[in-house]
User: Fold this.
Amino acid sequence: MSMTTEIGFTLNGVQRRVTVGVGMSALQMLRDVIGMTGTKYGCGEGECGACTIIVDGKSVNSCLLFAVECDGRELTTVEGLAGDPIAHALQESFVAHGAVQCGFCTPGMMVQATHLLATQPHPDAAAAKRAIEGNLCRCTGYHKIVEAIVEAGAGHEVAPARELMPATGPGVSRTSGQDRVGGTP
Assistant:
């Protein structure tokens, strides 16, 4: 009996075929086999949301999904959000609101928030909170994230990316914010 199998699926709009271990998670497949590291490993237990991806139109914790279950399905990761106008508005809003701190939870938040705005284009704060309730963030306290999601959904022109740091003086640009909302670090 083989300990590996070949599967085929659509990843970020591109057909893929890969060989995976039978017990491998979708997260391991994305990071270790394909080399897409935007999706983060946080807990491995489906509790933190850092590994959130979209599978056939539904948000999923990729650490809980076996890679073999991806066969024949459509997957979207944070890297697949590039060029998506909803994701772009969210990225700009996250950076402008200072909703990007260490950046570890940000890819999962971006995927979940993009999914929310694709299904509910103009959420209020309560809907934004419900959407990200499975995504843990230890840095922001969620207030800035919720504001960023609501503003992006409202379709307002997002102000230039400046973070206010009242204790240390005037606002400064977060130079790594764009990388973090794209899942690069």
